[in-house]
């Protein structure tokens, strides 16, 4: 259940622990969590998270796409892989799907920068793989992860194959732009809630809050929402 400035909380984007903010090129963070079709109200709950924070709608649905080739020769694999990657970029432009990629900072993927991507093992002998991400905006009150997932899956299946190249996809996730911009909203929520607690003890009591200078964390709160928080504590005591 975490984010990673525009991307990367792991290759498969699956459930994980919350991740702190860190600088990246597009300053976008991927948020991961439980599958959105589970019925439990607690499907996104993590008992390590703070109970007080700030919830907002995510900016994007994001899904990893793995472009592979399993031809015998390394040079041929690379040629086939990047030929299919080029086709993926061109098809995405026609279908209005944004592609981003990068090892550390995530940026828009183009035919001009695609060969700068790191080619890794595909997990089995004589297989090469490049990881990219497709994203769609979370737009409107009726935005659904299932619909975004279906659209990206359909797109991925439409990419023409070159030789022994093939595409795999991962789980749909959420992403937000520049999570650090919401730190003040998190602090405001903590301040409001802690004062409310202190008021229950009467006007002679105040509150001391600790930890607000620590890292900002985020995780999925619902099918389309993100919960941002700072690990903190507060103590109610006489003034």
Short description:
This protein is of the alpha+beta class and 239 residues long. It is 22% helix and 30% strand.
- Return the CATH architecture of the largest domain: 2-Layer Sandwich
User: What is the radius of gyration computed over CA atoms, rounded to a whole number of angstroms?
Assistant: 21 Å
CATH class of the largest domain: Alpha Beta
Count of individual helical segments? 3
What CATH calls the topology of the largest domain is: Alpha-Beta Plaits
Sheet with the most strands?
8 strands, antiparallel
Number of strand segments = 14
Distance between the termini: 39 Å
- Unreliable stretches (pLDDT < 50, length at least 5) are 1-25, 34-42
> Residue-averaged pLDDT, rounded?
83
Count of distinct structural domains: 2
User: What series of H and E elements makes up the topology?
Assistant: EEEEHEEEEHEEHEEEE
Label the structural class: alpha+beta
Judging from the principal axes of the Cα atoms, what is the shape? elongated
* Beta-strand percentage range: 25-35%
Signal peptide: 1-23
Keywords: Signal
Your description of this structure?
It is a single chain. The protein has 239 residues and is an alpha+beta fold. It has two domains: 19-58 and 177-238, no CATH class; 60-174, Alpha-Beta Plaits (2-Layer Sandwich). Helices cover 22% and strands 30% of the residues. The chain is built from three helices and 14 strands. It has helices at 74-95, 145-157, 183-199, and strands spanning 19-20, 28-31, 54-57, 60-69, 98-101, 107-108, 120-121, 128-137, 165-169, 173-177, 205-210, 216-220, 225-230, 233-238. The strands form three sheets. Strands 2, 4, 5, 6, 7, 8, 9 and 10 form an eight-stranded antiparallel β-sheet that branches. The protein has a four-stranded antiparallel β-sheet with strand order 1-12-13-3. The chain is elongated, with a radius of gyration of 21 Å. Mean pLDDT is 83; it is low at 1-25 and 34-42.
